Amino acid sequence: MNGLRESKATCCYCGVGCGVIVETDGQRVTGVRGDPDHPANFGRLCTKGSTLHLSADPLLQQQARALHPEMRLHRGEPRGRASWEETSGHLAARITDTVRRHGPDSIGFYISGQLLTEDYYVFNKLAKGLLGTNNIDTNSRLCMSSAVAGYKQTLGADAPPACYEDIDHASLIFIAGSNTAYAHPILYRRIEAARKRNPALKMIVADPRRTDTARDADLHLAILPGTDVALFNGMLHLCLWEDLIDQAYIDAHTEGFADLKRTVRDYTPKFVADTCGISEDDLVKAARWFGEAPAALSLYCQGLNQSSSGTAKNAALINLHLATGQIGKPGAGPFSLTGQPNAMGGREVGGLANLLSGHRDMANPGHRAEVAKLWGVDDVPATPGKTAVEMFEAVRKGEIKILWIACTNPAQSLPDQKLVQEALQKAELVILQEAYRTTATAQFADVLLPATTWAEKEGTVTNSERRITRFKPVLPRPGETRHDWEIAVDVARRIEALLGRTGTLFPYADVEQIWNEHRESTRGRDLDITGLSYRILEEQGPQQWPFPEGATAGRARLYEDGVFPTASGRAKFVNTVYQPVAEPADARYPFRLTTGRLRDQWHGMSRTGTVAQLFSHAAEPAVVMARLDMDRRLIRDGDLVHVTSRRGSQILPAIAGDDMRAGQAFVAMHWGEEYVSGRGGHGVNALTTSAFCPSSKQPELKHAAVKILKAELPWRFLAFGWAARDEALKVQAALRPYMRHFAYGSCTLFGREKVGVLFRAADDYPASPELLREIETLFRLEGADSAGVLRYDDARRGNARHIRVEDGRLAAVSLAGDTSAEHWLKDYLQAEQPVAALGRLLLVPSSKAPQGFKPRGRIVCNCFNVAETQLFDALDGNDWAKCSEPGQVLASLQQQLKCGSNCGSCVPEIKKIIVERSPAEKAAKAA
């Protein structure tokens, strides 16, 4: 292998938990491919997973990674480089002193579902066992806590009862509140394969938007945002009315059905159809399909969880399964899809403010005593700690003095960014333990602790189907980085010394010792893994829990015997009552804003945002609106609009989406102020509300009431160009502060083999020449490197066009005032077309593209760099008489262009394009 070696690891993105084979040369990752032996993905990877090696490119990493500790002693000063010895000592002293003066609850820990289970365990023990505070919560609070609460209220434990194999046995798949094709693409490939093998398999999708997942459905229930409880109760009403419930199962294995039955009597088809905004016929069809299905499998995610009634939504869906006996058998069950790679592992160790290790309840004195005995402490505090939103409110109020943040970016991801940023400014000490120093939160950190990340870490993660995967580092730790558990243990031991403790609660020399202690905490619990070891995981591969001592395998699905981990052994129906969204649309804020994922980006983009080609499918921030709403407001595609909620405002380009219903709008969750801002904006979460579910404390990130007004900003500026691979992220980071100088600003990457940076701004009036020169210098259009730059300047009209040409090709362009030539100049630069034949056209103040040049447009297939225009051309040349079925056309495109033949993430979109370009659809539109 020419000095190359291959190692097994796990993808660090969504909760599917795909196995990855990583190729390295000992110093860098040279390639990745799916692990064909891993039961989560059998060799498949999505666009994000298949570009993991690009996110680990050393030339990019050295620009974005935190590689040594940094510290400042006084606010307002820049952080300076420090040693681990002085940094850890300083933290231990500050934390100890603060606890002595203000009590243990003056400290807060905000950690992450991207930590490994061993990291999570140590942080949990540090907070609850050593310091004596339950103020430790995680960004999993933002994605999975409603699922946790829903499972516990109904089934008795936080344990998804189904597994991925159930997709192959289901006769009905009900997807609710999840764009699975984007959020869990490899799982969606499995759904596609199951439907191909079994044409009788039906799929229902409940989603306000007509997403790529919804387009594929046999039935799309385009419910109004937040009406899920009404939908599920209405389906149960119909199942009762048409005798589609399993009364024998209800009698033998459940309790509480009588109260729920009285409640759902009121959820008549007309009431539910009117409440949800769907037809009665579709509601009846959905209920019948579900009730009559031999095996119904529900898959759900943030559309249910991120809600002020998130727990009720989860419980209402589980009620439907219990009432019809659709649980504990192949192909059936309520299956919550985990958002992050190890949110499940964090739940296992009790890494939430209201939980303890081994799925124990903090409110249970016996459970607290068990954990105290295991840890060797007198007691564990009984009062639940502050959850995510509550924690930052407590910091803003001055109740929490020190905030330790690990592996997450709350200055991007939490709702109501005004509150969050005020809290970070108010805290006496902000500690950020992070692999990337370019996140929005990093600017608030008084201490930066450089942590290892994917490919360098060692430990275990648990995926959505309760499957634990063990992996080892494939690269050495860069710079002075340390593993997350090592950082926490070092500070913890120093605190112990300052407190005068003899011995240590943290005797760990390696991750296996931590994992073994965690394993012991599960003994006798629903998630018992006492039969597992690192050796078994290494020799036999990933395993599902429970896997108790003496077992030879884990359990694929739970509750097959109808016995549940409740006091009575019976599952409990929850009397769910529909409650309107916390912030309904009204005359002042008439639009319902939802948020969600892009296909090729991940969370706050600290990792995917370093890979230029992952911007090719969705290149820049935008708010998606229904065409009807845009036409009514005289808004054209690309026009800038003010999107304003009761908390803040962000200017964004508007684009029409045929997936949108009138009165609704959508912004991708990823666009934080690292990529879009302006004088008054802080990214998408400047708009979202911090209202949360009273049971799960999960915030309502999925819905906010907003108004959308056209932004009258006549002056525009745009600069884009290639940057050296070891400079591109530095250029982008240097440009971010400049966004604040304009009413609107955005800064993203583009390119594939080469990396480009794009900066866009808009304002009421032209920017000063000095400011533009500073920006253009970063593109080498001004300053010492600008020799040979072609220039057109019209000071009277405020227009300018500056172009740098290298080796006969475009290298950088800036357009001020009139930016209409962007549509071809950027494509010309990316295509690396020779410019010699263009002559004066390069500088003529016109938007006209060179004759014969056709811009490629948006990339649909990232694996093979296939653009929309290529698909259009191929379809327009298709012999529809011979190749008319969508499946036939797709196969033809895959053979001709290769699109959709690798990871498959683009297949749903290609299917949509096939339908739109078919002669029948064109004829229908013409008519």
From TrEMBL:
Residues 4-60 form the 4Fe-4S Mo/W bis-MGD-type domain. The keyword Cytoplasm does not apply. The keyword Oxidoreductase applies. SMART domains: Molybdop_Fe4S4. It comes from the Bacteria. Its cofactor is Mo-bis(molybdopterin guanine dinucleotide); [4Fe-4S] cluster. SUPFAM superfamilies: ADC-like, Formate dehydrogenase/DMSO reductase, domains 1-3. InterPro entries: Asp_de-COase-like_dom_sf, BFD-like_2Fe2S-bd_dom, BFD-like_2Fe2S-bd_dom_sf, CT_Nitrate-R-NapA-like, MoPterin_dinucl-bd_dom, Mopterin_OxRdtase, Mopterin_OxRdtase_4Fe-4S_dom, Mopterin_OxRdtase_prok_CS. One of its GO terms (biological process) is cellular respiration. It holds the Pfam family Molybdop_Fe4S4. Keywords: 4Fe-4S, Iron, Iron-sulfur, Metal-binding, Molybdenum, Nitrate assimilation, Oxidoreductase. One of its GO terms (molecular function) is 4 iron, 4 sulfur cluster binding. One of its GO terms (cellular component) is oxidoreductase complex. PANTHER family: NADPH-FE(3+) OXIDOREDUCTASE SUBUNIT ALPHA (PTHR43105:SF9), RESPIRATORY NITRATE REDUCTASE (PTHR43105). Belongs to the prokaryotic molybdopterin-containing oxidoreductase family. NasA/NapA/NarB subfamily. This is Molybdopterin-dependent oxidoreductase. The lineage of its organism: Bacteria, Pseudomonadati, Pseudomonadota, Betaproteobacteria, Burkholderiales.
